[in-house]
Amino acid sequence: MRKRSALLATVSALAAVALSTPTAFGAGTSVIADQAPRGGVFGATSEWKRNVSAAPLAANSAELVANVQQQVAAYYGAAAFNVNKYGTSIYTVDATQPRIDLAWDNCQRKPKMPAGILGEGGQFTQVPIPADAVPAAGTDGQLTIYSPQTDQLWEFWKAKKVDGKWQACWGGRIDSLSTNPGYFSGYWGASASGLAVTGGSLLIADAQAGVIDHALSLQLVNVRDRSVVSYPAQRSDGLDASPNVLAEGQRLRLDPSVNVDALKITPLAKMVAKAAQKYGFIVTDKAGAVAITAESPSAVIADTGVNPWTAIMAGKKSYDIFRGFPWDKVQALPLDYGKPAPVTTTVTTTTVATR
Hey, which residues does 23 pair with through a beta bridge? Predict the structure, then answer.
């Protein structure tokens, strides 16, 4: 078992340590940490870091919020906390991590392999995945690889090792991660919306620090029909035609006037509530319940034998973490909030006199 490094506070620190002590993380491996760094992997200009505390509200905010409350009440009476299943395992690796090509598992029975998965520059090509990586528990089998030194991120859905070789059903790669707005281009990525799963996950390091300084993903049972996609989502798998149902990519925030410290909710729920006042929630996917997703502990458990969420949750069951969360005090932002204005090009015509 390799020795997991102490959690490093910033991406720059991660890179510096990796460069100065290339063998500090155990013989035969170049993994820096089996979890995401504090604050997440996206830069300050990404949509996950956008401050929405003063944003305008959607004209039908009250109706949208009522629908969220109805979904919470109808499905278990409290938002689920996807902590031990259905998150994503996150491995932070350095630039010397050996790279391999993943095989494509056609679990969705597509008529043929989509262009761009394999071959030069392919999404599954030359991935620095540790040989002993462990995907998140649950049928989604999500796995994230983060390389701060090369400024890249990979996310895979239904990742697994078969006969010693890695494969996945879907996923994608982000280059120039530090300036990326927080989503995969085209139809790539592990979420139905194209938004990065890692960007909105409740991270182990953030929970241990007691502060979440980024938006959080929110999964709903019912989302707006896929013909309505709200920025920063790139696509949707929604089916509900009602205009009073949130679209994938649409944002919620907790009313900034709420005194979170006075709420009778768990400490972890208070962390989420404070983050929701400043950064909000972004609807990223459909699920079997209204759910907030955590970074999977699978990688850390495989490395250390200890589930870090056990101490963080202080004896509470996952289904009780968000019991009593003030969903009646959340507010919905307009569709496409924060979407950049289209770039216009001015064409100057010069008239030349001729004989």
Answer: none
